[in-house]
Amino acid sequence: MDPFVGIAIYLGIFSLLIFILLMGPSPRFRNGIIGKLNYLLTVALFKWLGITIRKVLGNRVSRMIDGIYSYCMEQKNPVLPLVFLTLMTGSVYTFFVAGWHYVPGPYVSKIHIYIIPLIIAFTYLSFIIACYSDPGRIAKENVVKACKMFEYDFLIFEPRKCRTCLFPKPARSKHCSLCKMCVAKSDHHCAWINNCVGLKNYRYFILFLYSIMQICFYGTYIILCIFCGIAKNMNLSSALVKNPKTGVKSKVSYHQMALLLIHHESFLGILGIFIVLVGIVISVFLGYQFYLIFSGFTSNESLKWSDVEELIMDEELWVYDRKIEPKSNDDNNKSRKKKNNNDNVNKKDISIEGKEKKLNNNNIRGIKTYWIKPNNLRNRQNNQNSNNEISERSDANNEHQQLLSSTTTTSSSSPSNEFRFGKQVKSISEVKNIYDKGKWKNLLEVLFPPSL
Ligand SMILES: [Zn+2]
Ligand SMILES: [Zn+2]
After folding, report:
1. Domain count, the chain
2. Which ligand is nearest to the CA of 75?
3. Which residues neighbour ligand 1 (ion) by CB within 5 Å?
4. Whole-number mean pLDDT of the chain?
5. Sign of the CA dihedral 400, 403, 407, 408?
6. Which of 92, 342, 373, 383 is most buried when burial is the number of CB atoms within 10 A of its CB?
7. CA 153 – CA 355 distance, rounded (Å)
8. CB-count exposure of residue 221 (10 Å: 0-12, 13-18, 19+)
9. 65 and 84: one domain?
10. How much distance in Å is there from the Cα of 193 to the middle of ligand 2?
């Protein structure tokens, strides 16, 4: 098979796999073929593998593999950073052995002798910074400041307590079970840098991605220039090739020239193909990170917004604007009566009361927006998280429910009374992301995060 066709097929399969792994859990694809393939690759395959290993190799080997899996996937560990360092150092070593003596060359100027080491050093440095930078650890000393940094929107973030850290969870924060800490404006835990990505080090994570993309595309450019130089030295442009079937001689095509050069400098050729593929994958991922930044949400929040989208698709999200003003006793009695008659609605209604308490406490008057969502948003989120996270959330949820039930008795109005005036949310565009400050302000917040 032609190597270039092979690369195209590989790229196609690889892109499809990435698409299935990334998009499979999203509401749009969850119930379709993509969702089923995602389940097959992420759950069913591992279950089947576990059963097969147990049957073939016995319980002892199976337990050992479970232990390795647990160490690699459920604990903070240096496995992937070491894989990165091995790949990076291996690639640099291959270049110095197979390509350095071509620098400078007919198409590679002398300046690259200085640029190449600088680019390599920059990549290692950005990796070290990303690995060891503080993602925005929330501790006793800064939890109050962290809570004031972002307000709760009562849609994707509600007041709750972190069971492990035993203090309130600020809006946009998340407890990382691997790092064993709450992280402000948490994005995700990156196994490649063995560190969380959050408020304070998101910029370093972006820098790290940029540095890999830079070294990959710069390396590809240098290797292409070296190959052009070799082709020039070999005078390939005027060489003739004989067709074995017809015996007719013709000029060497670019395709044949590329195959000849890869064959001539195979290590450099393989390195070039490898880094261009990595460069493409990283640039797509970097582009996605910028899309998230400009949209005003983190990777963690994008999952929560997917759940909101699913609620909207299931016609389960309602909204109403209510004027905050004191109600008469008659209204209170009517609304309590209505509340008793409509348990179903009241069970659904958590976020309204939470926000109501906050607003009442602050004595705010005017039109305010309230979200009415069923508990299953929380349940869906719980199902997607680890057991630890489930217990942590449910504990915080109980506490929050207690807080809310105490509010209900003192609250001057019943949410069910207002439910009649609510409007069903038909599209995600009707839901405002309060954390989105606009494209460039979002970017500035990432580049110059507020101090914690
Ligand atoms: Zn925590
Ligand atoms: Zn973490």
Report:
1. 3
2. 2
3. 162, 164-165, 175, 182
4. 79
5. positive
6. 373
7. 8
8. middle
9. no
10. 10
Same-domain pairing of 206 and 257: yes
Instruction: For residue 285, tell me if it sits in a domain.
Output: yes
Q: Which of 55, 74, 93 is the last residue of a domain?
A: 74
Q: Give the separation between CA 382 and CA 160, rounded to whole angstroms.
A: 14
User: Which residues form the domain of 111?
Assistant: 77-136+185-295
pTM above 0.85, yes or no: no
Of 346, 359, 366, which Cα lies nearest the Cα of 408?
346
Q: Are 318 and 423 in contact (CB under 8 A)?
A: yes
User: In this predicted model, what pLDDT tens digit does every residue of 136-146 receive, in sequence order?
Assistant: 999 999 999 99
Do both 31 and 103 map to the same domain? no
Q: How far, rounded to the nearest angstrom, does the alpha carbon of residue 360 sit from its chain's CA centroid?
A: 36
Residues at Cβ < 5 Å from ligand 2 ion = 176, 178-179, 189, 196
Kindly identify the ligand whose nearest atom is closest to the C-alpha of 178. Answer: 2
Q: Distance from the CA of 190 to the center of ligand 1, in angstroms?
A: 17
88 and 125 within one domain: yes
My answer on whether 244 and 104 are in the same domain is: yes
Neighbours of 389 (CB within 10 A): 18
Consecutive H or E run containing 250: strand 249-251
Whether residue 161 lies inside any domain: the answer is no
Name the strands in the sheet holding 423-424, side by side, starting at the edge strand that comes first in the sequence.
366-372, 318-324, 423-424
Bridge partners, residue 249, by sequence? 242
Distance CA 103, CA 109 (A): 7
Phi, psi of 400 (to 5 degrees): -65, -40
State the distance from the centre of ligand 1 to the C-alpha of 378, rounded, in angstroms: 18
CA angle 141, 138, 157 (to 5 degrees): 125
Alpha helix stretches (DSSP H) within 99-142: 112-132
Higher pLDDT, 355 or 171: 171
Q: What six digits make up the tokens of 118?
A: 């600088």
Q: Which of 267, 295, 323 is the last residue of a domain?
A: 295
User: Does any domain span residue 44?
Assistant: yes
Q: Give residue 326's pLDDT.
A: 52
Structure tokens, 372: 């009415």
Work out whether strand 318-324 and strand 423-424 pair parallel, antiparallel, or are unpaired.
antiparallel
Q: Which of 122, 97, 300, 111 is nearest to 209 (CA)?
A: 122
Predicted pLDDT of residue 387: 42
**Do you find a cis peptide bond into 374, omega within 30 degrees of 0?**
no
Q: Tell me, yes or no, whether 222 and 319 share the same domain.
A: no
- In this structure, what is the dihedral angle of CA atoms 250, 253, 256, 260, given to the nearest 10 degrees? 90
Strands in 331-424 per DSSP E: 366-372, 423-424
Of 24-28, 44-48, 394-398, the range with the lowest mean pLDDT is: 394-398
Same domain, 395 and 268: no
